[in-house]
Amino acid sequence: MVRIKFYFSVSAILFSCICFSQQLFVPRNIQAAYQKGTRSADGKPGKAYWQNTASYKLNVSFAPDTRLISGSVDITYVNNSPDTLKQIWFKLYPNLYKKGTPHLTKISPEDLTDGLIIDSMWTNDKLADGRSFTIDGTNMTVNKQSLAHGQSIRFQIKYHYTLNKGSHNRTGQVDSNSAFIAYFFPRIAVYDDIDGWNRFPYNGSQEFYNDFCSFDAHIT
To answer: What is the pLDDT of residue 1?
Structure first.
């Protein structure tokens, strides 16, 4: 009798597992991507798959005595999506150390700064004023754009910030003669077929991702 009950219980569990495996939950945004043909259930890119991309020209200098990082970045961003982009989202990862930016990692008050300062920004050779872009923590949005499918947009940005001395989180001064400098320039966020713009702020605890791009970097 005990064996019969045991076999029945095991069979019931196996039957439940088989039924569950045949009815896996698929989030709505993934279902929409299947329907649009940008993704497929076997994990391969769909027939209508696309990725946006950009080319970056970087000129950056680092002063070890003051920990000042300053430079310029020239970006040509290409919209391969079928959408017309009304905003361009940037990631300013050094702003993890900006005063007032939410963070989940421990940061010493001595390492909090004014963050990454945009000295100037040109959009398609037109000087942008302070009202045309908004900085919110590690996110920056360039507003009132209209970038259609197949079009490109060019940004020329001059900026500076002070590297953290302690509170190391992937970046910072190591000792008086060395420093580890990472994510040191404004970068355009990912716009994809699942969620659109990656609006999630960087809080120091999670990983992040970027488009495949090309880089021409000059570092002093």
So the answer is: 53
